[in-house]
């Protein structure tokens, strides 16, 4: 029986919706259903490599953070005037493809979710663990996942605006599509990210300790980055400490492994590169780190994704009152 071929296309489309066949559809089919995604659709139609990254069955489940027309508006205006637009667009959109199935019910869980993407371009990814893509962090509880009350669901990438998720759980053949109203900024180096956040004293400290290149070049690190106010309040130790003490103090603020906030278990201690440990404390809607000597710093901006791991901005340089602190 070939009844189906006599049915008009619209009827088939409606039928498909009713029985859920659209879940088998291509990314183009899914994006075409929402008028807010027409710019993205035309970008994908002109980019078979990106379309394949989303449609190829062999990569397993994926979750696409689909930038709306609003998110792409400024960007595409800029693209026409810049050089290597194809490579850049591929990097940006591959950073919006999470490796795995992450429905909204998953992303909204307290503490948030850190997930690898398909961003493998070595200009933005140096995690040193094979072909894994760099990571995004999704949270409804702020950048460190600790707010007491849920706010908007947003995704954090490289330093810059977080991207709010405005529409959730559109199904397509390989997983989920969530619409974001801003682009996720690509990860930069640690020192590049510190520059964007105006952490000038920290940059001076790294420079005086001759550690900038090591920090930027080492795969898979976590950097606890004190704010500018923290350095000022501590009397600008970046200019006063002898180099060995500065090196030790900076090592004390670094872990030799990328630990996004969900990886930092409450009450657990982690050994820093200075071989002394810091302990994770969660209290009253905030994430803290405690040094051996009793110093305690609050994470004021969590999960800034960098090329070689993650940075958490903290409000104190006095993580430790023993000789490894800055003071
Ligand atoms: C686009 O640029 C304008 C002006 O700079 C700004 O107000 C607006 O927020 C931008 N929109 C996006 C989506 O970046
Ligand atoms: C567009 O270009 C301007 C000037 O170079 C820059 O300030 C702005 O951040 C760019 N916008 C986007 C979305 O990349
Ligand atoms: C979210 O999904 C990931 C990957 O499937 C899984 O490891 C994690 O446990 C899920 N979290 C929640 C809260 O469902
Ligand atoms: C590589 O490291 C990232 C960041 O820690 C992690 O999300 C990813 O699962 C790792 N991949 C492998 C294959 O270990
Ligand atoms: C996605 O995850 C799978 C399973 O963990 C892994 O084999 C694959 O290398 C990952 N791909 C990327 C681009 O990270
Ligand atoms: C930390 O311990 C390791 C292994 O014991 C050693 O190789 C390294 O030099 C030590 N680092 C510091 C800063 O003491």
UniProtKB/TrEMBL annotation:
One of its GO terms (cellular component) is fungal-type vacuole membrane. Keywords: Signal. InterPro entries: Adhesion/Biosynth-related, FAS1_dom_sf, FAS1_domain. One of its GO terms (biological process) is macroautophagy. Residues 24-184, 186-318 form the FAS1 domain. Residues 1-23 form the signal peptide. SMART domains: FAS1. This is FAS1 domain-containing protein. It comes from Tuber borchii. The lineage of its organism: Eukaryota, Fungi, Dikarya, Ascomycota, Pezizomycotina.
């Amino acid at each position: 029986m070939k009844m189906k071929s006599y049915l008009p296309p619209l009827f088939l489309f409606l039928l498909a919706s009713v029985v859920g066949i659209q879940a088998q559809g291509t990314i183009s089919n899914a994006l075409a259903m929402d008028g807010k995604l027409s710019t993205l659709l035309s970008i994908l139609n002109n980019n078979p490599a990106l379309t394949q990254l989303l449609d190829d069955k062999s990569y397993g489940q994926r979750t696409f953070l689909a930038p709306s027309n609003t998110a792409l508006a400024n960007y595409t205006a800029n693209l026409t005037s810049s050089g290597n637009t194809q490579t850049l667009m591929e990097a940006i959109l591959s950073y919006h493809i999470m490796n795995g199935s992450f429905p909204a019910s998953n992303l909204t869980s307290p503490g948030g979710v850190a997930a690898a993407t398909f961003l493998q371009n070595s200009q933005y990814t140096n995690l040193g663990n094979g072909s894994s893509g760099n990571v995004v962090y999704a949270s409804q509880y702020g950048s460190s996942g600790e707010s007491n009350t849920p706010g908007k669901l947003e995704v954090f990438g490289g330093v810059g605006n977080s991207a709010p998720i405005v529409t959730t759980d559109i199904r397509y053949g390989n997983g989920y599509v969530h619409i974001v109203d801003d682009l996720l900024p690509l990860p930069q180096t640690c020192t590049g990210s510190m520059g964007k956040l105006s952490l000038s004293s920290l940059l001076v400290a790294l420079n005086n300790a001759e550690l900038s290149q090591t920090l930027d070049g080492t795969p898979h690190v976590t950097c606890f980055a004190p704010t500018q106010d923290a350095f000022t309040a501590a009397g600008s130790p970046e200019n006063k400490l002898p180099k060995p003490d500065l090196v030790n103090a900076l090592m004390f603020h670094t872990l030799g492994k990328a630990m996004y906030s969900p990886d930092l278990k409450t009450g657990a201690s982690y050994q820093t590169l200075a071989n002394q440990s810091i302990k994770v404390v969660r209290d009253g809607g905030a994430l803290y780190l405690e040094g051996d000597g009793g110093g305690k710093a609050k994470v004021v901006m969590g999960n800034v994704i960098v090329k070689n791991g993650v940075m958490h901005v903290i409000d104190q340089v006095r993580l430790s009152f023993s000789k490894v602190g800055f003071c």
